[in-house]
Specification:
Elements (H helix, E strand, L loop, with lengths): L4 E6 L3 H12 L17 E2 L2 E2 L3 E8 L9 H4 L21 E3 L30 H8 L3 E4 L6 H14 L2 E4 L9 H10 L2 E3 L9 H14 L3 E11 L2 H5 L7 H12 L11 E8 L6 E11 L5 E11 H22 L3 E2 L1 H7 L9 H13 L5
Parallel strand pairs: 1-4, 1-6, 4-5, 6-7, 7-8, 8-13, 9-10
Antiparallel strand pairs: 2-3, 9-11, 11-12
Helix pairs in contact: 1-9, 3-4, 6-8, 10-11
Protein backbone atom coordinates (compact mmCIF):
# COMPACT_ATOMS: atom_id res chain seq x y z
CA UNK A 1 0.00 0.00 0.00
CA UNK A 2 1.20 3.55 -0.69
CA UNK A 3 2.80 5.29 2.27
CA UNK A 4 3.53 8.90 3.10
CA UNK A 5 5.16 11.35 0.70
CA UNK A 6 7.92 13.28 2.48
CA UNK A 7 8.23 16.77 1.00
CA UNK A 8 10.64 19.66 1.62
CA UNK A 9 9.84 23.18 0.42
CA UNK A 10 12.25 25.95 -0.55
CA UNK A 11 10.45 29.27 -0.25
CA UNK A 12 7.63 29.65 2.29
CA UNK A 13 5.65 32.30 0.43
CA UNK A 14 2.03 32.56 -0.61
CA UNK A 15 2.09 29.51 -2.90
CA UNK A 16 3.55 27.32 -0.17
CA UNK A 17 0.99 28.71 2.28
CA UNK A 18 -1.89 27.72 0.00
CA UNK A 19 -0.46 24.26 -0.61
CA UNK A 20 0.11 23.57 3.10
CA UNK A 21 -3.37 24.84 3.97
CA UNK A 22 -4.81 22.68 1.20
CA UNK A 23 -3.17 19.47 2.37
CA UNK A 24 -4.93 19.90 5.71
CA UNK A 25 -8.16 21.16 4.10
CA UNK A 26 -8.48 18.01 1.98
CA UNK A 27 -7.19 15.56 4.59
CA UNK A 28 -10.52 13.70 4.81
CA UNK A 29 -10.98 13.21 1.05
CA UNK A 30 -11.12 9.48 0.43
CA UNK A 31 -11.10 7.20 -2.57
CA UNK A 32 -14.64 7.84 -3.82
CA UNK A 33 -15.50 9.14 -7.25
CA UNK A 34 -17.37 12.19 -5.98
CA UNK A 35 -16.35 15.52 -7.43
CA UNK A 36 -14.38 17.49 -4.86
CA UNK A 37 -14.11 21.21 -5.70
CA UNK A 38 -10.47 22.21 -6.18
CA UNK A 39 -9.02 18.76 -6.85
CA UNK A 40 -8.26 17.28 -10.26
CA UNK A 41 -7.61 13.89 -8.61
CA UNK A 42 -8.98 12.80 -5.25
CA UNK A 43 -6.51 9.93 -5.38
CA UNK A 44 -3.49 9.99 -7.69
CA UNK A 45 -1.94 6.60 -8.33
CA UNK A 46 -3.07 5.35 -4.94
CA UNK A 47 -1.92 8.46 -3.07
CA UNK A 48 -4.44 10.62 -1.22
CA UNK A 49 -3.83 14.27 -0.39
CA UNK A 50 -3.45 13.28 3.25
CA UNK A 51 -0.41 11.17 2.33
CA UNK A 52 1.63 14.35 1.80
CA UNK A 53 3.86 15.18 4.77
CA UNK A 54 6.09 18.24 5.01
CA UNK A 55 9.40 17.36 6.66
CA UNK A 56 11.67 20.35 5.96
CA UNK A 57 11.34 24.00 4.94
CA UNK A 58 13.71 26.76 3.85
CA UNK A 59 13.35 30.53 3.57
CA UNK A 60 15.48 33.65 4.03
CA UNK A 61 13.00 36.10 5.57
CA UNK A 62 13.84 36.80 9.22
CA UNK A 63 10.13 36.64 10.15
CA UNK A 64 9.88 33.02 8.99
CA UNK A 65 13.29 31.55 9.78
CA UNK A 66 13.14 29.71 13.12
CA UNK A 67 9.33 29.59 13.16
CA UNK A 68 7.21 26.43 13.03
CA UNK A 69 6.05 25.84 9.46
CA UNK A 70 2.35 26.21 10.33
CA UNK A 71 3.10 29.65 11.84
CA UNK A 72 5.61 30.82 9.25
CA UNK A 73 3.02 30.62 6.46
CA UNK A 74 1.08 33.37 8.27
CA UNK A 75 4.01 35.79 8.48
CA UNK A 76 4.44 38.89 6.32
CA UNK A 77 4.92 39.54 3.51
CA UNK A 78 2.54 36.61 2.81
CA UNK A 79 -0.89 37.99 2.01
CA UNK A 80 -2.84 35.15 0.43
CA UNK A 81 -6.26 34.05 1.61
CA UNK A 82 -6.35 31.94 4.78
CA UNK A 83 -8.97 29.26 4.15
CA UNK A 84 -7.77 26.61 6.61
CA UNK A 85 -6.20 26.68 10.04
CA UNK A 86 -3.12 24.46 9.93
CA UNK A 87 -2.62 22.44 13.09
CA UNK A 88 0.02 20.05 11.72
CA UNK A 89 3.74 20.55 11.07
CA UNK A 90 4.37 22.63 14.16
CA UNK A 91 7.44 20.46 14.69
CA UNK A 92 8.93 21.42 11.30
CA UNK A 93 11.06 24.54 11.80
CA UNK A 94 11.79 26.81 8.85
CA UNK A 95 15.56 26.95 8.33
CA UNK A 96 17.54 29.61 6.54
CA UNK A 97 18.68 28.75 3.06
CA UNK A 98 21.32 30.67 1.10
CA UNK A 99 20.20 34.11 -0.07
CA UNK A 100 22.24 34.28 -3.30
CA UNK A 101 19.97 36.06 -5.83
CA UNK A 102 16.75 35.06 -4.07
CA UNK A 103 16.06 38.60 -2.84
CA UNK A 104 16.16 41.50 -5.29
CA UNK A 105 17.96 44.63 -4.06
CA UNK A 106 14.98 46.89 -4.75
CA UNK A 107 12.93 45.04 -2.09
CA UNK A 108 14.64 47.21 0.54
CA UNK A 109 12.90 50.26 -0.95
CA UNK A 110 9.46 49.04 0.10
CA UNK A 111 7.70 48.81 3.49
CA UNK A 112 8.64 45.82 5.61
CA UNK A 113 5.18 44.25 5.48
CA UNK A 114 5.28 44.22 1.65
CA UNK A 115 8.75 42.85 0.90
CA UNK A 116 11.47 40.45 2.06
CA UNK A 117 13.69 41.20 5.02
CA UNK A 118 16.92 39.31 5.68
CA UNK A 119 18.84 39.13 8.97
CA UNK A 120 22.49 38.68 8.02
CA UNK A 121 23.26 37.33 11.51
CA UNK A 122 21.19 34.25 10.71
CA UNK A 123 23.53 31.80 9.02
CA UNK A 124 22.34 29.54 6.20
CA UNK A 125 22.16 25.80 6.80
CA UNK A 126 23.61 23.02 4.68
CA UNK A 127 20.53 22.32 2.56
CA UNK A 128 21.75 18.92 1.40
CA UNK A 129 22.36 17.73 4.95
CA UNK A 130 18.95 18.95 6.14
CA UNK A 131 17.28 17.09 3.28
CA UNK A 132 19.13 13.91 4.20
CA UNK A 133 18.40 14.25 7.91
CA UNK A 134 14.69 14.93 7.32
CA UNK A 135 14.22 11.95 5.03
CA UNK A 136 12.77 14.19 2.30
CA UNK A 137 11.91 12.39 -0.93
CA UNK A 138 10.87 15.45 -2.95
CA UNK A 139 12.17 19.02 -2.86
CA UNK A 140 9.80 21.71 -4.15
CA UNK A 141 11.33 24.94 -5.43
CA UNK A 142 9.27 28.07 -4.87
CA UNK A 143 12.01 30.68 -5.14
CA UNK A 144 11.03 34.18 -6.36
CA UNK A 145 11.10 34.88 -10.10
CA UNK A 146 14.63 35.69 -11.29
CA UNK A 147 16.39 33.53 -8.68
CA UNK A 148 18.70 31.68 -11.05
CA UNK A 149 21.55 31.02 -8.60
CA UNK A 150 19.25 30.09 -5.72
CA UNK A 151 17.25 27.68 -7.86
CA UNK A 152 20.39 26.00 -9.16
CA UNK A 153 21.64 25.68 -5.58
CA UNK A 154 18.47 23.87 -4.51
CA UNK A 155 18.47 21.69 -7.63
CA UNK A 156 22.03 20.58 -6.86
CA UNK A 157 21.11 19.99 -3.21
CA UNK A 158 18.27 17.73 -4.33
CA UNK A 159 20.69 15.76 -6.51
CA UNK A 160 23.22 15.45 -3.70
CA UNK A 161 20.59 14.40 -1.16
CA UNK A 162 18.86 11.90 -3.47
CA UNK A 163 15.57 13.85 -3.76
CA UNK A 164 13.20 14.25 -6.66
CA UNK A 165 12.83 17.91 -7.74
CA UNK A 166 9.61 19.81 -8.45
CA UNK A 167 10.52 23.16 -10.01
CA UNK A 168 7.59 25.52 -9.73
CA UNK A 169 9.29 28.69 -10.94
CA UNK A 170 10.75 29.95 -14.23
CA UNK A 171 14.41 29.05 -14.06
CA UNK A 172 14.88 26.28 -16.59
CA UNK A 173 16.10 23.14 -14.84
CA UNK A 174 13.89 20.27 -15.96
CA UNK A 175 13.65 21.66 -19.51
CA UNK A 176 17.43 22.17 -19.62
CA UNK A 177 19.17 19.15 -21.16
CA UNK A 178 22.30 19.43 -18.99
CA UNK A 179 20.36 19.65 -15.73
CA UNK A 180 17.94 16.90 -16.70
CA UNK A 181 20.89 14.63 -17.54
CA UNK A 182 22.14 15.08 -13.96
CA UNK A 183 18.82 13.76 -12.60
CA UNK A 184 18.93 10.83 -15.03
CA UNK A 185 22.46 9.97 -13.91
CA UNK A 186 21.37 10.06 -10.26
CA UNK A 187 18.30 7.94 -10.98
CA UNK A 188 15.98 10.71 -9.78
CA UNK A 189 12.79 12.09 -11.36
CA UNK A 190 12.03 15.79 -11.83
CA UNK A 191 9.11 17.89 -13.05
CA UNK A 192 8.94 21.52 -14.21
CA UNK A 193 9.44 24.27 -15.13
CA UNK A 194 7.18 27.14 -13.94
CA UNK A 195 3.88 26.00 -12.50
CA UNK A 196 0.63 26.71 -14.33
CA UNK A 197 -2.46 27.69 -12.41
CA UNK A 198 -5.57 25.53 -12.39
CA UNK A 199 -7.52 28.32 -14.04
CA UNK A 200 -5.01 31.08 -14.67
CA UNK A 201 -3.80 33.47 -17.32
CA UNK A 202 -1.64 30.98 -19.24
CA UNK A 203 -4.10 28.09 -19.41
CA UNK A 204 -6.94 30.47 -20.37
CA UNK A 205 -4.84 32.19 -23.04
CA UNK A 206 -3.66 28.85 -24.44
CA UNK A 207 -7.22 27.53 -24.62
CA UNK A 208 -8.54 30.58 -26.45
CA UNK A 209 -5.58 30.68 -28.86
CA UNK A 210 -6.06 26.99 -29.65
CA UNK A 211 -9.78 27.60 -30.20
CA UNK A 212 -8.98 30.30 -32.77
CA UNK A 213 -6.46 28.05 -34.52
CA UNK A 214 -8.71 24.96 -34.52
CA UNK A 215 -11.64 26.95 -35.94
CA UNK A 216 -9.60 28.28 -38.85
CA UNK A 217 -9.13 31.82 -37.55
CA UNK A 218 -5.82 33.49 -38.35
CA UNK A 219 -4.42 35.22 -35.27
CA UNK A 220 -2.80 38.55 -36.13
CA UNK A 221 -1.83 39.63 -32.64
CA UNK A 222 -2.38 38.92 -28.98
CA UNK A 223 -1.43 40.23 -25.57
CA UNK A 224 -1.72 39.15 -21.97
CA UNK A 225 -1.19 41.70 -19.21
CA UNK A 226 -1.17 40.71 -15.54
CA UNK A 227 -1.25 42.77 -12.36
CA UNK A 228 -1.11 41.61 -8.76
CA UNK A 229 -0.35 42.70 -5.23
CA UNK A 230 1.88 39.95 -3.85
CA UNK A 231 5.66 39.92 -3.51
CA UNK A 232 6.01 38.01 -6.77
CA UNK A 233 4.67 41.01 -8.68
CA UNK A 234 6.75 43.40 -6.57
CA UNK A 235 9.82 41.28 -7.28
CA UNK A 236 9.09 41.46 -11.01
CA UNK A 237 9.11 45.27 -11.10
CA UNK A 238 12.75 44.89 -12.14
CA UNK A 239 12.44 43.71 -15.72
CA UNK A 240 15.82 41.96 -15.79
CA UNK A 241 14.29 39.34 -13.43
CA UNK A 242 11.53 38.65 -15.96
CA UNK A 243 13.63 37.13 -18.76
CA UNK A 244 12.70 33.47 -18.24
CA UNK A 245 9.21 34.26 -16.98
CA UNK A 246 8.35 35.99 -20.26
CA UNK A 247 9.92 33.18 -22.28
CA UNK A 248 7.99 30.58 -20.30
CA UNK A 249 4.59 32.28 -20.62
CA UNK A 250 5.09 33.21 -24.28
CA UNK A 251 6.22 29.76 -25.39
CA UNK A 252 3.26 28.21 -23.57
CA UNK A 253 0.91 30.11 -25.90
CA UNK A 254 3.04 29.96 -29.06
CA UNK A 255 3.27 26.17 -28.76
CA UNK A 256 -0.45 25.66 -29.46
CA UNK A 257 -0.42 27.72 -32.69
CA UNK A 258 0.16 26.15 -36.14
CA UNK A 259 2.81 28.83 -36.77
CA UNK A 260 4.41 31.01 -34.10
CA UNK A 261 3.48 34.67 -34.20
CA UNK A 262 6.21 37.23 -34.93
CA UNK A 263 7.72 38.61 -31.73
CA UNK A 264 6.20 42.05 -32.36
CA UNK A 265 2.70 40.54 -32.53
CA UNK A 266 2.65 38.79 -29.18
CA UNK A 267 3.19 40.32 -25.76
CA UNK A 268 2.80 38.31 -22.58
CA UNK A 269 4.00 39.18 -19.14
CA UNK A 270 3.43 40.89 -15.80
CA UNK A 271 2.88 44.61 -16.06
CA UNK A 272 2.57 46.10 -12.58
CA UNK A 273 2.26 45.67 -8.81
CA UNK A 274 -0.83 47.00 -7.01
CA UNK A 275 -0.29 46.36 -3.29
CA UNK A 276 -3.88 46.73 -2.06
CA UNK A 277 -5.19 43.82 -4.14
CA UNK A 278 -2.78 41.53 -2.21
CA UNK A 279 -2.67 37.98 -3.61
CA UNK A 280 -5.33 38.69 -6.21
CA UNK A 281 -4.14 38.46 -9.81
CA UNK A 282 -5.98 40.19 -12.62
CA UNK A 283 -5.31 39.20 -16.22
CA UNK A 284 -6.29 41.19 -19.30
CA UNK A 285 -6.10 39.11 -22.49
CA UNK A 286 -6.90 40.09 -26.07
CA UNK A 287 -6.68 38.09 -29.31
CA UNK A 288 -7.21 39.71 -32.72
CA UNK A 289 -7.72 37.65 -35.86
CA UNK A 290 -9.40 37.17 -39.22
CA UNK A 291 -12.18 34.67 -39.86
CA UNK A 292 -14.12 33.70 -43.01
CA UNK A 293 -13.62 36.25 -45.78
CA UNK A 294 -10.80 37.88 -43.80
CA UNK A 295 -13.45 39.55 -41.67
CA UNK A 296 -11.98 40.74 -38.33
CA UNK A 297 -12.79 39.05 -35.03
CA UNK A 298 -11.39 39.75 -31.59
CA UNK A 299 -11.94 38.59 -28.06
CA UNK A 300 -11.12 40.23 -24.73
CA UNK A 301 -11.11 38.48 -21.37
CA UNK A 302 -10.65 39.77 -17.82
CA UNK A 303 -9.75 37.01 -15.37
CA UNK A 304 -9.54 37.61 -11.62
CA UNK A 305 -8.19 34.90 -9.30
CA UNK A 306 -6.57 34.46 -5.91
CA UNK A 307 -3.16 33.64 -7.31
CA UNK A 308 -1.57 31.20 -4.88
CA UNK A 309 -4.37 28.65 -4.32
CA UNK A 310 -4.49 28.48 -8.13
CA UNK A 311 -0.95 27.06 -8.27
CA UNK A 312 -1.50 24.71 -5.33
CA UNK A 313 -4.21 22.88 -7.27
CA UNK A 314 -1.51 21.77 -9.71
CA UNK A 315 1.43 21.20 -7.36
CA UNK A 316 -0.64 18.79 -5.28
CA UNK A 317 -0.71 16.49 -8.33
CA UNK A 318 2.91 17.22 -9.23
CA UNK A 319 4.02 15.96 -5.83
CA UNK A 320 2.08 12.72 -6.18
CA UNK A 321 3.31 12.17 -9.74
CA UNK A 322 6.93 12.42 -8.62
CA UNK A 323 6.27 9.97 -5.80
CA UNK A 324 4.90 7.46 -8.31
CA UNK A 325 8.02 7.98 -10.43
CA UNK A 326 10.19 7.31 -7.38
CA UNK A 327 8.22 4.16 -6.60
CA UNK A 328 8.67 2.93 -10.17
CA UNK A 329 12.35 3.86 -10.45
CA UNK A 330 11.76 6.34 -13.28
CA UNK A 331 14.37 9.09 -13.65
CA UNK A 332 14.65 12.35 -15.52
CA UNK A 333 11.83 14.65 -16.64
CA UNK A 334 8.33 13.28 -16.08
CA UNK A 335 6.91 14.47 -19.39
CA UNK A 336 3.22 13.94 -18.67
CA UNK A 337 2.79 15.88 -15.43
CA UNK A 338 5.21 18.56 -16.65
CA UNK A 339 3.22 19.13 -19.85
CA UNK A 340 -0.07 19.25 -17.92
CA UNK A 341 0.95 21.43 -14.97
CA UNK A 342 3.94 23.50 -16.15
CA UNK A 343 4.32 26.44 -18.53
CA UNK A 344 7.78 25.44 -19.80
CA UNK A 345 8.07 21.64 -19.83
CA UNK A 346 10.77 19.77 -21.67
CA UNK A 347 8.19 18.97 -24.35
CA UNK A 348 5.03 20.99 -25.03
CA UNK A 349 1.73 19.23 -25.79
CA UNK A 350 -1.82 20.51 -26.31
CA UNK A 351 -3.61 20.46 -22.97
CA UNK A 352 -6.16 17.71 -23.79
CA UNK A 353 -3.32 15.41 -24.91
CA UNK A 354 -1.25 16.29 -21.83
CA UNK A 355 -4.21 15.40 -19.62
CA UNK A 356 -4.56 12.00 -21.32
CA UNK A 357 -0.84 11.43 -20.84
CA UNK A 358 -1.20 12.03 -17.10
CA UNK A 359 -4.06 9.54 -16.85
CA UNK A 360 -1.96 6.96 -18.74
CA UNK A 361 1.00 7.65 -16.44
CA UNK A 362 -1.14 7.10 -13.35
CA UNK A 363 -2.23 3.61 -14.44
CA UNK A 364 1.20 2.66 -15.77
CA UNK A 365 0.52 2.86 -19.51
CA UNK A 366 3.21 5.54 -19.83
CA UNK A 367 6.65 5.34 -18.25
CA UNK A 368 6.83 9.10 -17.80
Amino acid sequence: MPGKIKVAIAGIGNCSSSLIQGVEYYKDVGEGDEVVPGLMHNVFGGYKVSDIEFVAAFDVDKRKVGKPLNKAILEKPNNTKIFQEVTKWGDVVVQKGPVLDGVAEHMAEYPEDQSFRVDESQKPVDVTQVLKDSGAEILMNYMPVGSQEATEHYAQAALDAGCAFLNCMPVFIVSNAEWEKKFVEKGLPCAGDDIKAQIGATITHRTLAKLFADRGVKINGTYQLNVGGNTDFLNMKRHHRLKFKKISKTEAVQSVLPEPLPDDNIHIGPSDWIPWIKDQKICFCRIEGEKFGNVPVNIEVRLSVEDSPNSAGCTIDGIRALKIALDRGVSGAITSISAWTMKHPKEQYPDPIAREMVEEFIVGKRER
